[in-house]
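Hi everyone,

Forwarding the result from last night's run.
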Amino acid sequence: MKGTVSNMAKVQDKPTFEILPIGEYVVEIAERSEKDTKNGDLMVNLTLEVTSGPHKGKKVWDNIIICDNPDSPAWKIRWRLKQFLKAIDEPHHGDSFEWDTDRWLWRRCKVNVGHELWPEGTTYAGQPKPVIKQYSPLPEHEDIVTAAAPAKAKSKKVFEGDTDIPF
């Protein structure tokens, strides 16, 4: 088969992507989306952004699986959900508790990042990818940012002599 491909002059070479080095980072949940796994469990896709240090602004991605089915393979890793919820200061005690992924946005925690190799048959096969090995809460002296924090950050400051009321 023959053909012509057009509009290639502006296509750039594959960009290089510097992965997050192995280490411990304070991150903020910048984005989240939900979908079902092939086993019918809810999987929350997280985009976490480093909030400080030389890697500030770099991102790492993770999936948190919420499983209530003892026959699902995800049942064996429910400890990870509990570890994550504890790290972002969400309810995680008792035999059952409610969760709400809307509350997860903008929460901060500490993560321990390691590297694993992309599996064969994928675009990046054999190359390292960052993976979150552990979630942990921030030390008590560091504030945990809640979903309400971004709105507060945008509030108007009132200066002496300012006649506008900011609320």
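Residues 29-149 form one domain.

Cheers,
N.
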